[in-house]
Amino acid sequence: MTRIIAGQLGGRTLATPRGADTRPTTDRVREAVFSRIESIFDLTGARVLDLYAGSGALGLEAVSRGAEWVTLVEVDRRTARVIEANVAELGLRAVARVHAEKVDRVLERGPGGETFDLVLLDPPYPVGEAELATTLGLLISGEWLSPDALVVVERSARSPEPTWPQGLALIRSRTYGETVVHLAEPSQAADAE
């Protein structure tokens, strides 16, 4: 069972996709990740982009903890419908938008004037390092990030560190069992261009 850990919706359960190629972040890891996020970043009023959203647990957790908006992107249409059901069940339709399409396709279109303060990426393990590097590059080139944004990448502990594009710098990494979480931020190199 997946649930919201803390905040205004703490304890509420989330539906999870059946038979889809997703691996929901465990409650324990999600709690540790958000503890780390909140130690360096204020979620109050944040705009969140949840890429490879799965059940939507990460993005919806951010809203529960004070974020004002979340955009969730999930390529699998059945899984995206599960996210939409979770959004409706939690009463978050006014603060959440779900895109049922490829992450890179959404990023290539550009943010349409919006920027995001927190970007969560939890790609399925079959997403290779080159594809992830392209996605991270699109966040920078498409100007999706606010100047003080935080980018959180969750991967298998057996995966190499992501290839960070110019303009995005690693802050720290932390391993939680089989999962490693990388935190990055826009770097000064992006401002100098």
TrEMBL record:
Enzyme class, spelled out: transferase
GO molecular function, one term: 16S rRNA (guanine(966)-N(2))-methyltransferase activity
EC number: 2.1.1.171
Keywords, comma-separated and alphabetical: Methyltransferase, Transferase
Protein name according to UniProt: 16S rRNA (Guanine(966)-N(2))-methyltransferase RsmD
Entry keyword Methyltransferase: yes
Signal peptide: none
Annotated source species: Ornithinimicrobium faecis
Pfam families, alphabetized: Cons_hypoth95 (PF03602)
PROSITE patterns found in the cross-reference section: N6_MTASE
